[in-house]
Design goal:
This protein is α+β, with helices and mostly antiparallel strands. The chain contains four helices and six strands, in the order αββαββββαα.
Length: about 140
Amino acid sequence: MTKIDFLRNWYDRVWVRGDLAAIDAFFAPRAGADGLMPDGQVGVEDFRALVPALRSLVRDLAIEMDHWQEGDDWLWAQIRVSALPAQGTRPVDATGQVMMRFAQGLIVAAYNTFDFLTFFEQVGQLPPEAFLLLLAGEKLG
């Protein structure tokens, strides 16, 4: 299996289908993912809370890889998340990137960026055009 196929399988099983038991089949036991939470690394157990929390905000979730590059133990991919909000019908469309290092067929390190601002805006957790409001000096909340 190629690394991009591995990543597609990760997103399908864990994120789209919500199979939290499958997390152990993808990540090495002490591996973690940087860039998803502002205060540090997300470990295997953290994913068991993060995945259902984010999935509760959307339905009809789909995750596609727009671009990717594999090399040696590394994979980089640009992803696109498409869904509908849990409450509403306006489409959710946000992008991100992930870079992963593999060892013995498992993810041992991951570095992520994701457009959470757009995501939370589109699911109704932030006001429309929150980025522009913030640029104009507005405070949210």
